[in-house]
Amino acid sequence: MPVVASSLHPATSRNAAGGPASSHAEAANSEYLWTLNFGPQHPATHTTLRLVLTLDGEKVVRAEPDIGYLHSGFEKLGESLDFNQYVTIVDRMNYISPLANEIAWHHTVEKLLGIEITPRCTYLRTILAELMRLHDHLLCVGAVALDLGAFTAFLYFFQQRELIYDIVEYASGQRFHTSYTRVGGVLFDVNNLWADKVRSFAKNLPKIHSEVDRLLTKNRIFVDRVKGVGVLSREDAINMGCTGPIARASGVVRDLRKDEPYLAYADLDFKIAASKNGDCYARYLVRMQEMLESIKIINQAIENIPSGPVNVELEGKSVLPSKPAVYRSIEGLIHHFEMIMPNRGFKVPVEELYACTESPNGELGFYIVADGEPRAYRARCRPPSFIHFATFQHLMPGYMLSDVPAILGSLNIIAAELDR
Amino acid sequence: MDFAALNEHLGGVLKSESFRDNTRLIVPAAQLDDLMSHLKHHLGFDMLSDVTCCDYLEYPGATDRYGVIYVVVNTRTRERLVVKTFVNDPSPTLPSMYRHWKTADWTEREVYDLFGIHFTGHPNLQRILCPPEFESHALRKDYPLKGRGERHNFPVITRAES
After folding, report:
1. What membrane topology is annotated for this entry (chain B) (predicted)?
2. Which end of chain A is more exposed for a tag (fewer CB within 10 A), N or C?
């Protein structure tokens, strides 16, 4: 990441929560410390993150993340859009793996409404969720390598991401913000050609994966930049609420796919990737390993995908009918009308619940409060990036300025998820 | 988790609800810190997964205004628990959970920013998503979706002043 602006003035009195006590005291007495603003950049580049770093020479004494640049009020919007409309918003919360957010949102809504999705849909969503995990890790590993100067790995992995875009486009008609899931199912069913695309992708990815593995894992320059940098202990990882690859790299072997199985994960054979060191290198290794496990899951799921309907049947009156049914039958038209008109639609209990899925970054949860209307009274998203970025101010002090990209990259911060 | 023993420890003020697979404990605000400390130090709930809030202003049958919701996880037994407490205007205040779990740092700041609930004992209770000049609390139900025109009054900073 390039440094956008720097200034030469004493450390401001704004207090960063946490950080080692010694660095606080040191910072308070030292007039000679520099304050350096790291970011924010244009939204189209990396992310709009601003880090206020207090430097002693090249050593970071205090690091204070400043968020809120993108704040889009997504949770407020969730109170005025119905359960199907809001899916267009949740996929914008995470621009690296949008479908993972959609799956998490409709997983929660279906649990609230008590809808059981069809076996074909569970497998389809599992495949998509794992494709999104690959999508996310490909970019994360590639971007860490790019930030540390290894451009080739980024190109190799980004090209594989393009292939995932193609697969998703073939299923949903959209490359990126797909809005593909619906209450009780998905927008369209997939066909055999799609399955072939997934198979050939899953067959080819391990080759690229092993090339990047050979390029980075034992590369002395890369290893020296990440090994022993940004160490997060097991206790801190639990205490700060870390989940996903970051927690697993610190030895917290927790994966919601195993712990609280949802979709088709209980039927599939896979391992949890974990490490003990808790540094940037461990986080890199966990992500690389997890990609291979995801390929395993995709291979199993695509071979065992059940036939049958992909959406819950019409009697449930909770799923939009297909367009041919709306145009050619009066039942379909009435059903569509009942679903779309205000004051109609789902039967929603006056209740609230929290449900979560294992998104590429960790536990992605939604807390929905429902008041009987077909929209959420309160739609809270528990974003993993937000929780993980809070650890940055604890991880950074004591390391060099040049370690900032390594630590920041290994946390895989997504700005839209921070601010929502 | 043994609900009866926990309830006895707190003097019988707890209520328990269950919906789908969510177990909820409802606790009066005065006993919140006692309960959370017991959950953390005696019952092994070592991870605070989330802190959030809901403004129950127009909610059917609601008697209190703000419900503050804590999701805690026991990473050994994989148990998950939702703890809920209520606070009311004019000065909604709760003890900060920062001394038990560091996750509370940013999550409580977010609740403070968007709902205006104060957390006593929080080390750095500042706005986190909205700018410091912003005075309202955007996720309260009486705050309009389109805002109150605050953004039009933002001061313009010139290059010379910056």
Report:
1. Peripheral membrane protein
2. N
Q: CA-nearest residue of chain B to A14? A: B124
Residue A162 lies in a domain: yes
Q: Decide if B154 touches A, using CB distance below 8 A.
A: no
As a whole-number percent, the residues of chain B with pLDDT over 90 amount to 46
Contact assignment for B129 to A76 by CB distance below 8 Å: no
pLDDT per position as a tens digit, B91-118: 899 999 999 999 999 999 999 999 999 9
C-alpha distance across the termini of chain A, in Å:
23
Nearest chain A alpha carbon to B111 = A380
Q: What is the pLDDT of residues A153-190, one digit of tens each?
A: 899 999 999 999 999 999 988 888 888 998 888 888 88
Tokens standing for residue B51: 């802190």
Nearest to B107 by CA among A395, A420, A275: A420
Domain presence at residue A59: no
Is B50 within 8 Å of A382 when comparing Cβ atoms?
yes
Residue owning tokens 């793996």: A97
In Å, what is the CA distance from A178 to each residue of A127, A184, A385, B127?
15, 17, 21, 33
CATH number of residue A152's parent domain: 1.10.645.10
- Inter-chain residue contact B102 with A68, CB threshold 8 Å: no
Within-domain flag for A378: yes
How many domains does one find in chain A? 1
Q: What is the C-alpha to C-alpha distance for residues B21 and B81, in angstroms, rounded to an integer? A: 10
Give the pTM: 0.88
Please tell me if residue B52 touches chain A, with a CB cutoff of 8 Å: yes
Segment among A367-371, B3-7, B127-131 with least mean pLDDT: B3-7
Residues from chain A that touch B102, judged by Cβ atoms under 8 A, are 18, 236, 239-241, 390, 394
How many CB atoms within 10 Å of residue A14? 12
* Across A14-39, average pLDDT: 59
Domain boundaries, chain B: 3-120
pLDDT tens readout for residues B48-86: 999 999 999 988 888 999 999 999 999 888 889 999 999
A353 to B75: CB separation less than 8 angstroms, yes or no: no
For the segment A259-284, what is each residue's pLDDT rounded down to a tens digit?
A: 888 888 988 999 999 998 889 999 99
Which member of B22, B60, B69 has the closest CB to residue A371?
Answer: B60
Helices and strands in chain A: count of H runs, count of E runs: 18, 9
Radius of gyration of chain B (CA): 18
Across the interface, which of B59, B107, B129 has its CB nearest the CB of A377? B59
User: How confident is the model at residue A14, as a pLDDT?
Assistant: 38
Which CATH class for the B3-120 domain? Answer: alpha beta
* Token digits of residue A107: 């997983």
Q: How far is A74 from chain B (nearest CA, A)?
A: 10
Domain range for A230 = 74-312+347-419
In a domain, A382, yes or no: yes
